[in-house]
Amino acid sequence: MRGESVDLPVEIPGSAPLTTRLKSLLQHPASVYEEAQTARGWVDLAYEAAYGERYAAAAEAAERGLQSPGANDPENRLMLLRILSGVHEMRGESELSAPFLTQRIELLRQLGRTRQAEVEAQLGTMLLREPDRVEAEILKRMAEELDDGTGPSVHRADVLSSLAVRTLHDEGPEAALSLISEACEILESLDRPQALAGARMFLAHAQLLSDDPEAALSTADQVLSAPANRAVRGAMAMLRATVHHQAERPAEAVEDAMTSVELYSACGVRKGAASAAALLAGISSSLSESETAVLAWRVAVQQAELGEFSESRMLSLALGQQLLDMDNYAEAEKVLEALSLRLTGGESDFSTRGRALMGLGHAVTQQKRPLEAMSHWEEAAAQFISAEEVDEAARAHLAAGALAASLDRVEAARKHYEHGLRLADQGEDTDPLMLLQALHSLGHLLCRHEEESGLTYLDRAMDIVDEHGTDWQRADITDTRARSLTALGRGNEAVAAALEAADMFAASGDEEAAADAEIFAATVLMQMNQSQEAETLFRMAAESREISDALLATSLEGRAEALTALGKHDEAARRTAELEALREQLANEEDLPQSE
After folding, report:
1. Which of 221, 421, 529, 535 has the fewest CB atoms lying closer than 10 Å?
2. d(CA 477, CA 457)
3. What CATH number belongs to 229-308?
4. 212 in helix, strand or coil?
5. Residue pLDDT, tens place only, 132-184
């Protein structure tokens, strides 16, 4: 809480581009071992360290302040003694706190502030921490006693502030507003700028929690326009960023979040810096500012690791996901693999490690290493089981099964799908859509490899669609059933199912899928030597639906084959010519530079 004699910088220049500022933080994280020249400077450093939960550093700064120029100034000395007693109390060291509290009370008496000394002697450590409910009753009675018509007093403001902390906890922010507002009014009238900054910070947060963001913004602006240390300014910048973000003012939110990161980082409030950087990363990502988002996530991870906070794990996971979203698979692999290894063994965070392994699997899949991905996803499933996250374990097995199926590793795919189905089928706790996916995947796999039992799974999947699914999902299951029946050698049933699926897709507005189902039915008819019916379906799919050029090419190829089989060589040649022209057009389009 800064006064006129403060000898430490208040603000950090913020005119450079965000990426430059973030890179600067990454390359030169601010040292928390700063020196002050005066007792007043040490007050700020002690407060900032305490706010950042660096209690030993806070105590050391306050001790040094007592030996520095300006330590004989009563206000400086009172603040340093309060910080020392408060820091030791927060660390559960009441025996170390007591002597400093006694010294403060004695100094108040020497200064003639006997009523304040009596109040602090009577309340003891209640003013230094969150009071319990019994202590809150004592504070309430004391606040009433001090409202005696003698005018505003610092000690009444102190009592109201401590009471507001308990009231916020027990009754909610609205109940605390009148208490902390009165404390602010008292401190403003008594011209106590340092204490007022802290009280207004509390008020701004209570207003935000009371769903009054504009009032919170106004209070934060009052704090930022008056003397305050970097920790308080960082908190208010973060509150401003939060309000602007919620009000969909991204430019303002980004600038305030960046300012908060810089201020918090500069004074060693690592948890605050990590939170502000994470907010900045999230906003930047939503604005498609991927480079800024990645740098902000890196800063968030760095700050959390400097503070040795467990949150660094989730922040690393978010960084890895951001890199995946940017298709930066090699860098995502590095981040996620490092996180996974860090969480191996000991009291592992099974859930976070499972998610890291899932992301790692996606990263290596995109780098053409599918067998590694299957291994990562299988391990992820085990981690989720350990974390009792059954749904996530099921999803991991289904992902591994789909990958195995794409590699034609039938037994591995079957194993994973069966595991996924067993985990997904949890009775009352079943997620119907995940169970649907498991049944659909396993049923299709089995039918593709001529196991008729697969149809049973598809029938059960259809039952779930009837109760919980959509028309498009019903069409999709029907389409899969058509393809499964083909694999089982039941061509006529397959054609009927495919045409039924086509009608369902069309009713759902998916013309492309409808045409694809019709082309599949036509292909089956060709295999059954029913070339006339096949040619009709190939033609209808192309002429009666809006479809992609790629699917149109498939239709033309099928028509040409059917016409040839029917002995209509001239017409078949025309369709072949159309096909070749279309393929040439598609090839030329692929060669064109892609617009950004």
Report:
1. 529
2. 11
3. 1.25.40
4. coil
5. 999 999 999 999 999 888 889 999 999 999 999 999 999 999 999 999 999 99
